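User: Run a structure prediction on this.
Assistant: Running it now.
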Amino acid sequence: NGVIRKSARFIGKSSHAGLAPHKGINALNAAMLAINAINAQRETFQDNDTVRVHPIITKGGDAVNAVPADVSLENYVRAKAAPAMLDANMKVDRSLRAGAMAVGGRVRISTIPGSLPLVAYPELWKIYTPNAMAVVGAGAMGNRGHSTGSTDMGDVTQIMPAIHPYSGGTSG
């Protein structure tokens, strides 16, 4: 899968959680609503696109007795092809904005290009396979198919024919 890296900083307004929570804007609630909105998007992803979206909260506030005003979230958006990555990325951005909007807060979204999806060239596999079998034997060969992880080798395969074979380790 290709990957787009995202971070979001939810900005609210701090106030005392016991005395005046009504004077605050809870950035943690905004982040949690955003995560729930992202989860609500999952049924819109096509199975064959192998979309993976997995956010985490990296900062959830500063003190337990204060309405959180500064909350950070990190997220990867992965997919098998660039159009699916872009579609999922747009849905994640929309979800992040919705979380902030719901509580009256703000969100700053940073999108960082990651890696493009890997495209394996069958012609190169036809050359690689008999040579690898000669070294490790046919019984030690396999094709694991599409992987949902991400690698910068995807960038290489977008500009030139390439493959990304793996080999097993040792035993004993």
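The chain has a mean pLDDT of 91.
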